[in-house]
Amino acid sequence: MVTPIIILLLLIGPLAISYLFSKTQKQPLNIRKFACWGLGLAYLFFFIGHFVKAQGMVEMLPPWVPFRLTLIYLTGVLELAIGIALFIPKLQRFAARLAVIVFVVFFPANIYAAVNGVGLGGHQWGPIYLLIRGPLQVILISWAYFLCIKPTQVQWNKT
Predict the structure, then answer these.
(1) 129 pLDDT higher than 90
(2) What is the DSSP letter of 151?
């Protein structure tokens, strides 16, 4: 069950590193920029999973869903686009909004996979996995909203 840890490290990494750098260089920190970069890295990780572990992701969808493999690839491309956009300042808020929508829309697939014990990344554990996945989704959505979308003037200054 390493995947949630990798996701959290990717998410937090850029902000943590830039915070340490800003402290040593006595420079202000642009929280939104580095929070979006972390979310962007997480989305690039999600994109890779859609292509490297495509068959496992297909199993996370109910059999009645048509064109499951194609859908996995298309959603992977969507995650790639969101991930890249999160590195582009003019697109960051829009991409973060899309990221939140994707988290919400894709969550039923996680529920299906956990309840049926299929798929990747711990879904085989059954519904108990949702005790990890659910809070992780809340963290990701909160990160996107409070650090990437919500207007804020907060910057950590030299102190």
Answers:
(1) no
(2) -
